[in-house]
Amino acid sequence: EDQVTQSPEALRLQEGESSSLNCSYTVSGLRGLFWYRQDPGKGPEFLFTLYSAGEEKEKERLKATLTKKESFLHITAPKPEDSATYLCAVDNAGNNRKLIWGLGTSLAVNP
Amino acid sequence: NAGVTQTPKFQVLKTGQSMTLQCAQDMNHNSMYWYRQDPGMGLRLIYYSASEGTTDKGEVPNGYNVSRLNKREFSLRLESAAPSQTSVYFCASLIRGQETQYFGPGTRLLVL
To answer: If you average pLDDT over every residue of chain B, what do you get?
Structure first.
């Protein structure tokens, strides 16, 4: 069964304390893996798309990496404004662009 | 560009009432989606429209109907609302040839 699992469910960091969020997936054929950020009361905001193992993308303090089984979202020296829920989704080849979503990691960064 | 817009932002219904959630996008996207988001359940696809004139069921279509009015607009209708339909509803769109779905701000629905 196609599945996306994110861990941890929740993470609390001190400002400046770097860490990583995990997204593991089991799908028959990966067309793309997506990271989104969601602030309370708002819709998901697109961050990154990764297509193949070994690929990396960066944006400010965030860096996303991809292997054949999982993706990591590395957060370097986080700030309080990085507090949000981070969602991972997978586009399974042949699924007519229907994404498989993880439940998200809720990140809180304390000043 | 406004991106993806949704109306209303918040709605309270009584069991059995009907309503239509509106979604519009100004990005000339081909495909549009309706999701619901519930605590502990994540985002679940209700219906999607791969192109104007076509609609298909997603993971949780029961109790909902959709209309792809034109390329810009995709509406979601609850014919007889039930408390189990209390949720946050998101509309999303994407352009053929790309893979990224862009989301609206959501509609928060409470069914009493």
So the answer is: 94
